[in-house]
Amino acid sequence: MATPAAAGAAALVLQANPTLTPNLIKALLMYTAQPLAGANVLEQGMGQLNAEGAVRLARLVRTDLSNSTPLGDPLLTGDHPVPLTTVAGHTFSWSRGLVLDYTYAAGTELFLKYQKVYGLGRLLSDGVITGDGVITGDETLMSDGVVFGDYLMTSSGVIAGDGVVFMPSGVLFSDGALREGQTIGDGVITGDGVITGDGVIAGDTMLHGDDTACMQPQPDAP
Prior knowledge:
Layout: H1 2-16, H2 22-31, H3 41-44, H4 51-58, E1 84-87, E2 90-93, E3 97-100, E4 103-106, H5 109-112, E5 135-136, E6 139-140, E7 147-148, E8 201-202, E9 207-209, E10 212-213
Antiparallel strand pairs: 1-2, 3-4, 4-7, 5-6, 8-9, 9-10
Helix pairs in contact: 1-2, 1-4, 2-4
């Protein structure tokens, strides 16, 4: 159901400004999206589609942009619009960010300045190799003022490092623990009663650990 809605919004954005590149259309839809409370970026991307905000911002994007436009040139023909949308009496803020492959870019500079990743022949994930927006090959693709890697929302709706971890149980495998509080690799039973650590040998009818017989085989029934 999301596909026709996104396609329709992209068509409206392109109608508002036919000179937009595919990357700019995608960036407009993400930048103006409504972040949803209680869902992290891994779950919602940039949020809920906001055609009104995307179209309004698209009308301000310059129509003379090309791959030869210098990085950091003004992107809009006027001031950045107020990043709010009101629909049916409900007003919400835009995300003002972009998901870029394995990281996240934020800041009004994304649509105040021309970014090379908006040009043809590029992916929005280009230029974000080291997490600070630097460089693919010898070319800088993002201008100063764009923040990378910060503001990743967790399920509690706050930035990463401030709230809860992504895993709902709050337990990471690096803690050496499972959900039941069992430790891996310390001779603890982890599955069907078979001891897996400390040099223990598991058999069908007998378990041996530390030279102690844990279970003796039973004779066959007559």
